[in-house]
Amino acid sequence: MNNILLLGWLLTLELNLISANIYMHSPRGSNNRMNENTATRRNNNRMFDSQNNARGGYNVGDKKANAANNENDQYRMKFFQSGKEGDSEMMLQWTNQHGCGNDNPNDPMKLNCNLVLQFKCQDDIATAAPKNSYTLRNGQNTQTQQYTNPNKNENENQGYQRRNNNVDANKGLQESWQWYDACYRRERNKGLFTADQNLQKNNLGVDAAVATRQNPNKQRSGYECPEERDYYPYWHPTPWTDVAVLAHNSSICSYYQENSFNKKAKGECVELYTSKKRKHFSQANNPAACAAAEGEWVEYHSMLELATKFTTQNQCDRANNPRLASRGIVYKWGKPYDEAKIVNSLPIVDACFVIPPPVDCKVAQYSRVNHLGDGVDGTPNNYTWKLPHFPSLEQKRCVFRMRYNISTDDYAPFDTDASQNQVKQGKIVVQQAPVQQNPLVNIDANNQVLRLAINTAQFGRTFQDRSHVFFISPRPAEVADERKLINLNVRGKRGNIVQTYPAVEYDFVPKEMSIKDTDLVHIQWTGSNTHNNKAPGGDGQTGDAGEGTGGTDRSNFLQLLEASHNFPVPIDTATLYDSMTVEWNSVGDKQYDSKDLAIQLGSSAYYKCASSSVCGKDSISRKAALNPTLDQASPSYAGLITSFKKGTYHYVCTRNNNFTNRSQKGKLVVR
Question: Whole-model pTM above 0.90?
């Protein structure tokens, strides 16, 4: 276990936090919200352990002008994948409370920090919310999936029955039931520093991976594995794919890149039922324990997807070429970590698969301590994600997560391990840990003692936020593989700055863009009908100040002449829409003219065109008049993909832009 000990402790302090919060704003982070109309979320443990303030997060998007009452009526953002030649880019934005940035010896930070960005994708299926233990879904209520502890001598059929009794199609799911069950049964890494925390055993008497220093009472949050949540890079296979690590110091990047599951195979113990089917669990967490349990220790590789058309190693190897490799598309023959097979008790055999690109690692952007706001120069902290390319060209169902980790230098972050945990003989402490719970310190002033506010479960701590479910889809046939595609979205929710906090008010993402006239832009947004922000308000203000029907998000997109203006340019004199060459349009493939495009963007596609001869009952001339505040329009718009002629363009959302309260304006420079 020595290797595990070193890896684990590196992240206990390098990627665990103290007292902070992180909130994703683009894509919209849920903070465990679903559709509640209250300012605070109803269930902190719905799908994951965020450790954030209960007020943060955004509701799941709605397809229609009324709140969804089933998952089919929820809106899932659709992002189009990178091509073999052309990138698809999405700007991620977030706020983190306790600061981050380069730990420069000449200007040291008050803490160590790291941010870990990951996604999880699986093949999409027709059913939005099936009753199974694997398919990603948002849920239709705010309750947590159930979990019943296993019996010691549980057989295969009893395990299946326990799973079937636990899993509910109407509840959110981002990790499989089998993932948590395996975590519950597997022995934890005992090489890790746990200070003076008393970690509880599971009901089978095992010191299991569901109990950690941060989670000593093994509290469950959805089907998340607490040990995997708290440590990075994890030493066992994980269903999450690395995108980036934003570190406090570039010197540690080589470690993350070498030990990322994207690059390094990770092992777990595989045991079989008496039927010879694969178990999804084992108590063993290392090769020696696995051998003692008569299991097989198997090293698995992370994969983007299977490459089923290549059935031999020779075919798989020959599929590679330097050009594909330069684009991050590499085929590999070996054992992929195939969660779909694991949940179905199927064997994982050698196969051809696409490996993820190497994890990106760079120094984190600066952000202020004790400040949930923008970074340097008023720019939101952000990362531009190059979306993956899936050679199968099949649609994927995905979620995104971001973990924010901080620690201090009050004890050696790279050298402290289980050997320095508190040790007791009976009730007597014979070895103190480097930090203790709320310690008293003598400041050498006539023996005056002061108490420090230290919770050893949180002295080094992990916070996270996750998105709702979204799609990564193959590019439409009209969008050429080699074209660069940039996503233009909307962040925020209804309410003024105090009511929405620690979420944010509306704005475009990116707010300012500089692109080439050959680049494509996918304009798309989503919103909810239940952002009423009612009581309870927690430690903040309730209310949903804004325009139109209470609780509703709406957006649109119309040209401004200048950034300092607030009145949109009349369609007949606007230049923005004439500059557009639309390659794909979610409202259909008719030949819409520039006026029709302006109408679609200005009405959030409530109207499709001006004349009934073009779009019939969806035209302005025939459809019921749209309320000036867009109330009958959908809060979500699947959008269009377009290029623009060279020039500088400004645009605005007429509903949300309020000069004295908030600005929802954007700028586009095309060169």
Answer: yes
Find, among 253, 247, 260, the residue nearest to 112 by Cα.
247
- CA angle at 314 for the pair 309 and 316, rounded to the nearest 5°: 40
The strand ranges marked E within 27-138 are 61-62, 74-75, 78-80, 88-96, 98-100, 112-123
At residue 257, the 3 state secondary structure works out as helix
User: 375-414 in b/e burial notation, b at 16+ Cβ within 10 A?
Assistant: beeeebbbbebebbbbbeeebbbbbbbbbbbbbeeebebe
Q: What does each C-alpha distance from 472 to 81, 216, 334, 390, 469 come to in angstroms?
A: 6, 37, 25, 9, 10
Kindly report the length of the chain: 671
Phi, psi of 462 (to 5 degrees): -115, 130
State whether the Cα torsion 325-355-363-492 is positive or negative: positive
Cβ neighbours of residue 297 under 8 Å, at least 6 residues apart? 267, 268, 269, 270, 284, 286, 287, 290, 291
Nearest to 166 by CA among 196, 133, 136, 141: 133
| Percent of the chain predicted with pLDDT > 70 | 97
Nearest to 22, CA basis, from 90, 100, 77: 100
- Are 144 and 43 contacting, i.e. CB atoms less than 8 angstroms apart? yes
Whose CA is closest to 544, among 51, 554, 665, 603? Answer: 554
Q: What is the mean pLDDT of the chain?
A: 94
Q: What is the pLDDT of residue 654?
A: 97
In 440-537, beta strands by DSSP E:
440-442, 449-451, 461-466, 470-473, 485-491, 507-509, 512-515, 520-525
Give pLDDT tens digits for 406-428: 887 888 777 889 999 999 999 99
What tokens does 650 get? 């400004």
Q: Which is more confident, 378 or 253?
A: 253
Assess contact for 463 and 50: CB atoms under 8 A: yes
Count of CB atoms situated within 10 Å of the CB of 319: 19
pLDDT in tens, 649-671: 999 999 999 987 889 999 999 99
555 exposed, middle or buried (CB, 10 Å; 0-12, 13-18, 19+)?
buried
Per residue in 104-115, pLDDT (tens digit) is 777 777 778 899
Strand partners, 247: 114, 363
DSSP 41: -
Q: Grade residue 17 by pLDDT with cuts at 50, 70 and 90.
A: very low
Instruction: Note the pLDDT of residue 580.
Output: 98
Question: At 157, is the secondary structure helix, strand, or coil?
Answer: helix
